[in-house]
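Thread amino acids onto this structure.
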């Protein structure tokens, strides 16, 4: 039985769809904090079990009988180490032999602040004694296409990534990689650095957006603190403005550039070009 946490999230839902191409629905377990929402949203026939990262008892019973567990990192930044440790401890107590975790590209050396929680989780998993695979996911291209409406409205894209190159890929690509690892053998003990086959700077992203929309959307590069202030001014909460500004500063240092092509190798095809993700978003 293969279980997926965060199954009501955007990545988790795609992983479930992908798993169903390979395994019978009754062998797929969606671990969710809101079973009613999951039942409305997820495919029929799969098992839905309540599992809140903050509730160790629910986690342990939800994990009974699971042979492979995908722990999709929590979206609750700042609480993730405790939450992830809860899942790993519950997996051990429930007798789950194998865990796959979605981390961040080069978690052991990334300058991006988000890396700390991921690295601590990775170490906890490795030290747990469970068989494991770490999927160090680079950025989703959708992180940037989410800014397209604001960029079109204001006639410009803002960021603080300078000339930093971004090897992002579509969420679907990462979902297929996770499913591929879960339904095939030979991945235990491996740490994969996953990123897109193509790359771009934010100026190139803006140029492609301009080309596809026929609207001039130049890229305006700001300092990290100017970008954080602009995001706060646009109404983002402080933690998110800081996170995004810090991530762009990391991009400028090359944190999201990668030429290993491990993602394309895992999914058996080239990753989705960023221009195609832009095309789907506009
Ligand atoms: P998402 O759509 O925000 O999904 C997050 C999932 O985490 C949701 O299913 C959410 O459940 C679940 N969750 C949050 N707190 C929980 C808790 N206490 N107990 C149980 N489940 C909980 O994020 P995504 O796009 O699928 O991405 C998956 C993860 O990758 C994110 O959580 C984040 O750690 C990371 N991420 C990566 C990138 C990237 O570019 N690589 C970008 C953004 C995020 P509900 O549906 O109940 O809210």
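Threaded sequence (282 positions):
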């Amino acid at each position: 039985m293969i279980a997926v946490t965060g199954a009501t999230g955007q990545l988790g839902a795609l992983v479930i769809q992908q798993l169903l191409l390979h395994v019978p629905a009754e062998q797929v377990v969606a671990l969710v904090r809101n079973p009613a929402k999951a039942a409305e949203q997820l495919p029929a026939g799969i098992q839905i079990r309540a599992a809140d990262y903050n509730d160790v008892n629910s986690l342990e019973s939800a994990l009974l009988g699971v042979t492979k567990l995908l722990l999709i990192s929590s979206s609750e930044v700042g609480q993730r180490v405790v939450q992830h440790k809860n899942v790993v401890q519950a997996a051990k107590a429930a007798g789950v032999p194998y865990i796959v975790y979605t981390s961040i590209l080069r978690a052991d050396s990334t300058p991006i602040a988000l890396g700390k929680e991921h690295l601590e989780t990775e170490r906890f998993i490795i030290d747990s004694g469970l068989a494991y695979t770490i999927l160090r996911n680079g950025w989703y291209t959708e992180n940037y296409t989410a800014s397209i409406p604001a960029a079109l409205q204001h006639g410009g894209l803002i960021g603080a990534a300078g000339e930093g190159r971004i090897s992002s890929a579509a969420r679907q690509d990462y979902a297929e990689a996770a499913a591929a690892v879960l339904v095939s053998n030979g991945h235990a003990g491996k740490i994969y650095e996953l990123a897109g086959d193509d790359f771009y700077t934010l100026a190139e992203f803006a140029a492609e957006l301009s080309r596809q929309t026929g609207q001039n959307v130049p890229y305006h590069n700001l300092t990290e603190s100017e970008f954080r202030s602009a995001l706060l001014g646009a109404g983002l909460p402080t933690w998110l403005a800081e996170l995004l500004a810090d991530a762009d500063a990391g991009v400028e240092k090359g944190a999201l550039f990668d030429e290993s092509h491990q993602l394309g190798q895992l999914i058996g095809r080239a990753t989705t070009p960023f221009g195609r993700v832009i095309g789907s978003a506009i």
